[in-house]
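Standup notes
- DV: blocked on the single-chain target, sequence here:
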Amino acid sequence: MCRDNRNILEHMKHGAAVAVIDALGTVTGWSEGARRLTGHPAEDVVGRPAAGLLAGDIPDATLAARAGTVALRHRDGHRVDVALTACPVAGADGEPTGFVVTAGPPGSALAAEAFEQASVSMSVFDLEQRYLRVNDAACKVMGVSEAALTGRFFPDTVEEAEYNVGFLRHLREVAETGRPVRYESFAGAPALNREHLWSIEMWPLRDGSGELTGVAMAALDSSEQYWARRRLALLNEASTRIGTTLDVVRTVEELIDVLVPRYADFAGVDLLDWVLGADEPPMPPDGGVVLHRVAHGSTREGDPGAAVPLGEADVYPPHSPPARALRDGRAVLSQAGEPEFVEWLAERNARSPQGRPHRQDAHSLIAVPLRARGTTLGVAVCVRIDHPDAYGPDDAVFAEELGSRAAVCIDNARRFARERSTALALQHSLLPCGLPRQAAVEVAHRYLPSGSLAGIGGDWFDVIPLSGGRVGLVVGDVVGHGIQSSATMGRLRTAVRTLADVDLPPDELLTHLDDLVTHLAAEDSREEIAELGATCLYAVYDPVSRRLSLAAAGHPAPAVVLPGGTAETVAMSAGPPLGVGGLPFEATELRLPEGSVIALYTDGLVEDRDREVGDATEELRRALSVPTRSLEALCDDVLKAVLPDQPGDDVALLLVRTRALGADRVATWDIPPDPAEVGAARQAVGERLAAWGLDEAAFVTELVVSELVTNAIRYGEPPIQLRLIRDRALICEVSDASSTSPHLRRAHAYDEGGRGLLLVAQLTQRWGSRQTGRGKTIWAEQALPGT
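- DV (later): unblocked, structure below
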């Protein structure tokens, strides 16, 4: 039933196409909007049968639903298709006495449903700032129904507040000028428990003649983005406020000043004993963690409610949030009502009863470990009491980032006693701790730091998984010794990984790396940087083609041992060392049988002032040629046979045994540039997955294949090729002759396309593109079932 006569009058007053029909089918009411729609004035229609306005029969389904598309006859004779909705009007006895019929263009009913069901808060006002329409989202924000708002003046529905005055001012501005307005307001709403940031847009509504009839408004809740910006601003502020001195206690106090009051109502920082100078942190028998309270702060004056006085030791039970954060190396959230939160609060109250009043309203806690360079220094505990919002996942990310930055400052504040131990710790933290699993090669490696007084050098090695089942092999050496060389090594290793991720060929990768070293030397005026230099060898092995492509920058060439053969040094151009600049690097390519062994090493293995390089290289080839039970054993045998008793330089050795992916693990199809071929490609992939016993992966893989092949046909250039590789992961590759690389973009709500790569990114573990000599290849990897 229609709500009441007031709503009928409001619709008729504000220009809607409305007619009132009694129980006998006679028109008893006719709005100005109905006149504009049909051309019939009220005097020609009121009192006459409504059937006379029809240009055809009303479908039975429309009659039953009292809604649908109906053909009317315009006054000038042409047919007008409109969407009608009939709403029964009840009499005093509850029986229908007629109908209120509203009309609009076809599809207007769907548009009305879209308005009602929109997730964005939307409202329509007349030119006097009275509510005409309010959608469901706006009703939830206001905490009342649409009927309670319709026809009411906006200021009568809200409290007197500055943001509501501003809202009314903008409504009037749009009504008076006819120009849209867009602005942001940090405001509250009756149904919300705190203020939110709203992105508000108002625009004028006009009828067919262009006359201004009302103002529409949409408000998007941007609170999450607002708080994200606040967290980012706090991180930027922390970068300047934390670490202004080299005093550990002062650095921790600066962290507390950043946290309270904007992030926490109470915050405390406890550090492990050894950070404050003790040799080892004592551990109690029950496995709890012993720390010392260094600083705390609170929004409440006087006693901040801290259970542990400054400078005293604290033992966290093993299952408490701080102990878990220390053990797991990540932020731990806990909310009121959860067992561990209740237990933690009870333990705090038992330890410090005088602080109980300050803790009684505590409702959320986050404990974040303070970690720098892979080392845990302590823990920061943040508690919310007066702040209405509980900590969430975004707060945990912020806490970990802030804790990481603060931990670096704390770690910088304490001085290591010996430079060599510092350099060695840094060297080990930068070298790969565990090489990634991949099917292309079997790997064994050794790194021996120098025992000389010169200190630790800058040798490094790496194994980098690449797309298509390939693998990148790296070994390098930075000139000099000490912390500076180790730090430069870390920069270069990171740069190589970044460039390798772009899938550059070895000679191009070394060219970019050479530019980086040149820029590093130019940007720093210190003498040791001015003499910066490094050597590097980068190789890429493809287990499908069994090809090894490699290039070197002033680095010793690797040795290769073919199955059943003897070791031979690869004939290649070493190129200039990194940092020389202006000279080219040349790539060499080999085709290796499965089971070949490649030995990559730094010059510390073969160069020594007490022997010739040629003699040491020959010893290396002989040691590599001796059959052994494993690569690990071969590593030990090589070092034992080649190195002197007291090596004068760091040594890095990387041994690699090649593997091959046979035809039974690779499937390739040539795709004609016809959209009709997409279905055939999906079917072929499904059949191959079934043959491989990977039916569980078929659904996702076929979706990925469909998106990538469609993109190649639509945006690429022939020839187009599809390749499926069954490695440790399932790899899908689509190649075409176009060199234009794809990129993710955010598709808008009404866009017909633009979501393909986003879908691929969400369905797979990782994806990317690489340039080839004949165009580009788009690839995506997904985990195999059961892995």
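- Follow-up: Confidence is low (pLDDT under 50) at residues 3-14, 527-531, 749-753.
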